[in-house]
Design a protein that fits this description.
Elements (H helix, E strand, L loop, with lengths): L3 H15 L6 H17 L4 H16 L9 H16 L15 E7 L5 H16 L3 E5 L5 H14 L3 E2 L7 H15 L3 E5 L8 H14 L3 E7 L4 H14 L3 E5 L8 H10 L3 E5 L7 E3 L2 H9 L1
Parallel strand pairs: 1-4, 1-5, 2-3, 2-4, 5-6, 6-7
Antiparallel strand pairs: 7-8
Helix pairs in contact: 1-2, 2-3, 3-4, 4-11, 5-6, 7-8, 9-10
Bound molecules: guanosine-5'-diphosphate (GDP).
């Protein structure tokens, strides 16, 4: 399960402090040391850890007394609040264009789960928001990617727009949007090309699509199993494209949690969804508070 190591370590530390009727500065110091080590071990970015620990210390030592909680419980509440804030605080909503269709551009490296997530997101929009999306195959470099999206469309019984591998991705996207207007599709989800690494050609192509299509959302899909690499990838995509949100995939695996805990702080862009498995219904809206509760037990 995701976060197992982190949860184990933090829960041990928390048990020690929860029951305390009095919490000394020394107790807080010991607790924050344990939290710091647990976060670093979970591959959380070290700058992020440093800032988080400073905030926990400041609040835990100088906190206002709340009658309903023991001092130990109050310290834990501070840790939970700060972990929640770190992951973005409030749950973040998906955009709706003033005039349909709302256009979402999916970007990310190959293998992160971009195409699968395109299908999952379409399914989510239909099931939870009663929407009627059109999927668009803009990865002209891999015929297999187009085929994969078409297969997902068949499984979901949803339309897929493709012009094969010969057309230009900007043209494909524009024609798809025109088609969505004609057919009354209220969302257009564009599956773009991925590469093995961040490179200039990829970014240029994505920038061209962005400039022309002016999407309402640009979701970066990253694999949570890749830890700090996922954070670095998010940083470069954000610099080049000014993404609007992140989808973290493979949170059902035994990821240590570093990406989930660092991405918002490093990019200042919210995690909007979490992929919890390979199936098309295994996408969840990302709730920072629930995730913090899961980690702290
Ligand atoms: P793309 O190259 O980024 O389009 O990646 P794909 O959508 O083809 O996904 C790559 C692999 O990751 C596939 O085997 C997917 O089934 C798998 N995958 C995607 N999302 C998840 C997830 O949330 N959990 C798990 N366990 N596997 C996932």
């Amino acid at each position: 399960m995701a976060f197992e190591g982190l949860a184990d370590r933090l829960q041990g530390t928390i048990k020690k402090i929860t029951g305390k009727g009095k919490v000394s500065e020394q107790d807080v110091k010991e607790m924050t040391r344990e939290v710091r080590l647990a976060l670093l071990e979970a591959d959380v970015n070290f700058k992020v850890v440093k800032q988080l620990i400073a905030r926990i210390k400041e609040r835990a030592v100088g906190q206002e007394v709340m009658e309903s909680l023991t001092p130990g419980q109050q310290v834990i509440k501070v840790v939970k609040d700060e972990l929640t804030n770190l992951m973005g605080g409030e749950q973040s909503k998906i955009a709706v264009a003033d005039r349909p269709p709302t256009v979402i551009m999916m970007v990310g490296l190959q293998g992160a789960g971009k195409t699968t997530t395109t299908g999952k997101l379409a399914n989510h929009l239909r099931k939870k928001h009663n929407r009627n999306p059109l999927l668009v195959a803009c990865d002209i470099y891999r015929p297999a990617a187009i085929k994969q999206l078409e297969t997902l469309g068949t499984q979901l019984d949803m339309p897929v727009f493709s012009l094969g591998t010969e057309a230009n991705p900007v043209d494909i996207a524009n024609q798809a949007i025109a088609k969505a207007k004609e057919d009354h599709n209220d969302y257009v989800i564009i599956d773009t090309a991925g590469r093995l690494h961040v490179d200039e050609n990829l970014m240029e192509e994505l920038q061209q699509i962005k400039a022309d299509v002016k999407p309402d959302e640009i979701f970066l899909v990253v694999d949570s199993m890749t830890g700090q690499d996922a954070v670095n990838v998010a940083e470069s995509f954000n610099e080049q494209l000014d993404i609007t949100g992140v989808v973290l995939t493979k949170l059902d695996g035994d990821t240590r949690g570093g990406a989930a805990l660092s991405i918002k702080a490093v990019t200042d862009k919210p995690i909007k969804f979490a992929g919890m498995g390979e199936k098309l219904d295994q996408l969840e809206a990302f709730h920072p508070e629930r995730m913090a509760s899961r980690i702290l037990g």
